[in-house]
Design goal:
single chain; 8 strands; binds adenosine-5'-diphosphate; binds magnesium ion
Amino acid sequence: MSLAKVFRENPNRRYIMFGGKGGLGKTTFSAATAYWLAKQGKRVLVFSVDPQASLSDIFKQDIFGKGAVEIMPNLYAQEIDADQHIREYQDQIRKKILDMYGFDKIPDEIESYIQAASAEPAMEESAIFDQVVDIVVAGEYDYYIYDLVPLGHALYYLSMASVYDQWISKITKLREEMREYEQMAARLSRKSELQEDEILRELQDIRYRISTSSSILTDREKTAFFFVLVPEEMILIDTQNAASLFRKYDVPLSGYIVNRVIPDELIEKGNIPSYLRNRHTMQKKYLQKIDELFGQDVLARVEEMERDIAGLPMIEKMAQAMFGEETL
Ligand SMILES: Nc1ncnc2c1ncn2[C@@H]1O[C@H](COP(=O)(O)OP(=O)(O)O)[C@@H](O)[C@H]1O
Ligand SMILES: [Mg+2]
């Protein structure tokens, strides 16, 4: 079992994702993998699409909403600020309306409509997704590591069907919005002719984004998706369910990483509190089950560390635990 080998043998897999329930180690593995790749001279962006992002915590640096921040040579981290993106989107709509209808100022009626539309929860997801697409389409990095939200959302980002649906509804909504803006504007301005070109261009741009993003996210050649799990019964069941869901959506899976394994050496030392000894025994049972179920797809076992992983020295230690001395 070797995680490094998966990277070595699949150099085209440049979109890297770790999926699994909250708290299992996705952000930690994302950061450590980014570190491992950056140390070998690859230009890496690790970015978070989680509103409760914790890249700032793990890198011990406030990066929220600041774009891509250089952490060390070749390693960049970004936490997406969805609210900022929504504000930018509102400004774009305002500008379009001003340009289209030749107003000097957005009429109050339209302004309140823009405000109301932005308060919808779908807007935040859409804003985040938009920014992810922008980042990926720009193509400035060798590797993109997505620090994902818990599993259900990962599927949302991954399965072509849902990505497509999301965009289709966005197109429909855009058309409806345009129609409503048009009606409102027609009442308020004499220049009421809708500029078809503008809408068409927008739709073509959206279509380009659909095909680019969905082809990247579901492409077996370009994407590596790893499941993170811990040796516990409930997590094992969840992981099996998720894996079958992935198969159903035909989302490519690169393998499994088992986290928080209590090292045997620790237990052999003796003088170990019984709760720890019992946990170790329980883990043994599930580690065996995991091997039986996933076999060669179990790529690494990462041990429980003495404390939380934060700051570059701990991240380096984690990278070592995941990849050993191996290189690309
Ligand atoms: N092997 C490990 N040993 C010790 N602490 C760990 C280990 N893996 C993860 N942690 C800690 O567990 C917490 C949750 O990890 P995190 O990567 O944020 O999970 P997720 O992103 O999946 O929610 C963090 O505080 C992290 O430092
Ligand atoms: Mg996380």
